[in-house]
Amino acid sequence: MATPVMMPRQGQSVESCILGQWFKEVGEEVNEGDVLFSYETDKASFEEEAKEAGILLAIFFEEGDEIPVLTNVAVIGKKGESVEEFKPGAIPLKEETPEEENVEDPPKVYEFEVEENDSDARIRISPLARNMAEKLGIDFQSIKGSGPHGRIIARDVEAVSKAETPKTVATSAPVDKAASAVVLEAGEDFEVKSIPNIRKLIATAMHQSLQNSAQLTHHMSADARQLMKLRKKFKKQFEAGEIKQNITINDLVCFAVIRALEKFPQANTHYLGDKMKWFKKVHLGLAVDTDRGLMVPALKNADELSISGLSTRLKELSTAARNGNVNPDLLNPAEATFTVSNLGNYGVEMFTPVINLPQTAILGVCTIVPRPKELEDGVYGFVPMMGLSLTYDHQALDGGEATLFLAEIKNQIENLEV
Q1: Which of 219, 237, 262, 313 gets the most CB atoms within 10 Å of its CB?
Q2: Residues 69, 17: contact at Cβ < 8 Å?
Q3: Does the predicted model carry a pTM greater than 0.70?
Q4: What are 298-315's pLDDT values in tens digits?
Q5: Are 231 and 252 in contact (CB under 8 A)?
Q6: Pairing of strands 338-342, 284-286
Q7: Pairwise CA distance, residues 285 & 337, whole Å
């Protein structure tokens, strides 16, 4: 009996997905476990495998279509089986449609006639592996795949990348996030390109955030000597094999922020218009810059973690976000109670982060720069200072509360003990 293939639901908050690439053609034999197609939510990409063996009888959508979750996208079965009942929007066969009724045309269907397929001649490569190969300047056609049926997967590209010399691998080249955009109009001195789906979503979220909240930003600097001392200690322990996780400055800052949120729970809230949602746990949002745009996955129950555990989980989340396989539910702004956005590695000395509504506040972490500071009476010296920028919703927090909270973050950073 023919079996429909549905667009999966990835997370309860996902209502539709973008069809990425078909890896099987109509009429091609499919084995259980074969990858049929790739698809993406607003910020993460996935692959759908065949649940049964058979022949791909029909597909109902083209690459790039936005498809509601749990909608039939294809049919697998035996040669000659009907696919009519599985078409999206199909009317059951037992019901007759009056001729005068205006029935909307169903999606385009790609039927087939069984032909000999030279499937071995096709290059099988996952979307993630293809993207990695293109960014690293590697010819994926020469790579031997280790995935199912010889499919090239990310680890194959990574292995080739490590074997190449730096001269042949363009790892330092900046990533063109608009490279996949479609040129809509062109002139002698310009091009008009389409906006990727993720950029539309980010733009909408940022616009709504500024429209629907009263955002103010306070700036303060913290003495970073204790952070740098701890970072040096942990790095030495990591290199000596005494600890498994390479704990970073950002990990230490996040640890300090969590401690400050425990003392100022009014900042660990969601502003809901006529009410406030107070959280007993800290679900920390971490802004991650990826090739597809900014993602902010939430680390649930971050307050329960040690510094080593926090570092491990933050690295796992950021890696998943960059690889495009993070749980979509964790990208919902409502999943985090407070967000940290660190631009220190880019040398940014001050900036104004935008709140991820319905969260009440967000902390921007800036670069460390030497600044004069009084060391003792009348004696001054240059001290490494870290810039902190707290943006908060003035509807939820008063200026005094926000200032005291930011001062507590500063205090935690300057006196951090782990």
Answers
A1: 313
A2: yes
A3: no
A4: 999 999 999 999 999 999
A5: yes
A6: parallel
A7: 7
